[in-house]
Every structure is written in structure tokens, then in C-alpha cells.
Amino acid sequence: MKTPRRVALLVLAACALALPFFLWGFRTYQLAFAAVNAIAILGLNLIAGQAGLISLGHGAFYGLGAYTLAVLMRHLSVSAYAAILAAGLVGLVTGYVFGRVVARLVGFYLALTTFALALALPQMLKSSYVSPWTGGAQGLYLDRPSAPLRLPVTPDQWWYFVTLGILALLLWMTRNLVAGRIGRAIRAMRDHPIAAQAAGIDVARYTALTFGVGAAYAGVAGALGALLLDFIAPESFTYWLSILFLVGSVFGGMASVWGAVARGLLLQFWSDIAGMVSRDLVHSGRSSCSRCGSCRMASPEWCRRGNG
Asked: Domain limits of the chain?
């Protein structure tokens, strides 16, 4: 890595570490969730961007990680940090097995199979066979641990730092994976599957490996997201979540590793940005309010000061 780029990364890292001390609590919470989204999208980038495998079921692996953590914490009294690691391992194994099953599917058939996975997970979580563990349709509440060693930070700040550290670690691991022999084999499988198989690349094995690593990232993201929300329910992991991850992955290029951070921020703040744009469009060209002179609404009865 060249020195200017290294310096730029160090400056960005320092700014990211300092942000929670200059922002109010809710913004810190939102940034932590943006990092969670970035971790999930990073895993999807490996599957869809690097390997060229269409996946519409990434939200299912995310939900699996969330429920792994919740079950371990609520029923087995496992610490949150160990449960995050366990969620990644469960995602790795599940994704690898799933990748082995769908290794021969391509295109529309692969997309349909992964979409079926996203549709099936919420119903499976509400099944009477597992509802004593998952809480069924009512979901599960979680107790998010505070900072250890009496560190002078709030719970939101602490979990922002934890999530940011995990994101940095996974970005480094992904960069090394993509730049190495495995990454070259995965891209060869994406660009020329027949030539890759003729060159001795085990396409089925690398397909399963890619799904496994991507699902492990989603599992870790789901566990962190469950801790940040303090509550999970089956309806939080519908097929729409997978669609959102796919949209976020497409933004800025699916093959980019570092772009996952920008996509995570977009996925978290796009509703706020859209709300600001639409509000400006509605208010543009209108005269100031005759009651308060500041909210630019034409009708005094809709004055912000008068109606909150």
C-alpha cells in the first residue's frame, strides 16, 4: 500500500474513532447500524460481486445469525461476544452446506432457490417445533452488555467501537482473500466457469466456500444487529431485507471491497436523505409562515410551532 493511501486510511480511522464523542447518542447508534449493514453487504459482495452468484436470500443468513446469538444468550447464558463468534460459525457452516446443494444451479434457478430461503426463514422461526427457543411470533428481548472495565463510554458508544473493530477486521480479511489465490479462483469461476473447471478449479467447492464466507459475514452482522435492537422477531427478516442488501450491494459496484462502507452508510441514511429532499421540494417556492416566519409553510394552520 502506498504511503498517501496509508495516511488517508489512518486519518479516516482516527475520525471514525473520534466521531462518537462529538455526536449525540442516536447518531452514534445509527453509525453503528451502518457498520452492521456494511458487514452484511461485504459478505454479499463476495457472493454476488466476486463470484457472480445471484443471491436473494442473504437476509436469511442475517436472521440466522441474529437468532443464534439470541438463543445462546437467552437460553444458554452465553456471553454476547462468544455468541457473535458462534453466529459467524453457524453462518459459515450453513452457507457452505447450502452452497454445496446449489453448486450446479445458475442464473434464474439459483436466484429462485435463494429467494425461497428468504421466504422460508420467517415461517420456520414461527414453527411450533422451534418456538420455545425462538419465541415464535412474539420474538425475543435481549440485554445488551455495557462497556467492560467501567470504561467511560455509553453502551451505544461501546457497541459502535465493537462493530467498527469487527468491520475493520473483516475488511482486512476480505482484501487479503480477494487479492490471493482463492480470490483469483473465484473470479475465474465467475468470468469463465468452463475454462476455470478445465484449468482444475473445483467450481462446486469454491461456490460452497464463497457462500460459506458470505453467510458467516451475514451471521456476524445479524448478531450485532440483534444486540443493537435489543429485540428480534421473525418479521424482521423477511425477503425485503434480502432485497435491501442486494440494492445496497449494487450501489458503487458489487466487486468493490472498501465500497461496502459507503453502501452501509447509504442503506442506513437513505430514508433520512430522501425525507430531506422531499421536504425541500415541498417547501421550495413557498412563502414564509405568517405565524412564525421560519417553517416556510403557506398555511398558518400547519405552522410547526403551533402544531409541533
From this structure: 19-307
